[in-house]
Amino acid sequence: MHIRQLPPALKPLADKFYRSQRAVIGKTAGAQIWVAQETEIIAALVLHPVADGHWLTSLLVDATQRKRGIARQLISTVRSECDTKVWLFCHPDLYSFYTRLGFEICRQLPPELAARLTRYQQSKPLRAMILPS
């Protein structure tokens, strides 16, 4: 398995992966797309630059490849390459999953993320988490 930051010119490969999983990658202007590949992309995530770190969105592992530690390897590589704080919003059902990956509950977000979380929480039960640098 090879984990790397996908060059912007190859973003269509990430789009294809997300579509194959019946998911949408969302807006990625200015963001980093990280992928785990074997023959094809089997996992991906998106890092949006914010404040003094990144906001992680769209972490997805191919349904047929789950339970192999791929998300852990992807997060670990991103952590070692980026060396910044990484925030995410997660559904309470995923709290223990992200805790096992090293994330902690975050009580203070950068203003732009705090405003976004407030909007999202109007329709979804989300928790803010952080992967300390």
What features would you describe in this structure?
The protein has about 130 residues and is α+β, with helices and mostly antiparallel strands. Helices cover about 30% and strands about 30% of the residues. The protein has helices at about 10-20, 70-80, 95-100, 110-120, and strands at about 1-5, 30-35, 40-50, 55-60, 85-90, 105, 125-130. The longest helix has 13 residues, at about 70-80. The chain is globular.
Key structural traits:
single chain; 133 residues; alpha+beta; seven-stranded mixed β-sheet; 7 strands; 29% helix
Helix content: 25-40%
Major sheet details: 7 strands, mixed
Unreliable residue runs: none
Strand percentage, roughly? 25-35%
Whole-angstrom Rg: 14 Å
Across the major sheet, the strand order is 1-2-3-4-5-7-6
Shape: globular
Instruction: Write down how many β-strands occur, each being a DSSP E stretch of 2 or more residues.
Output: 7
Number of helices: 4
- Helices and strands: which structural class? alpha+beta
* Terminal residue distance: 25 Å
Structure in a nutshell:
The chain has 133 residues and is an alpha+beta fold. The chain has helices at residues 11-20, 70-82, 95-100, 111-120, and strands spanning 2-6, 32-37, 41-50, 53-61, 85-90, 104-105, 127-131.
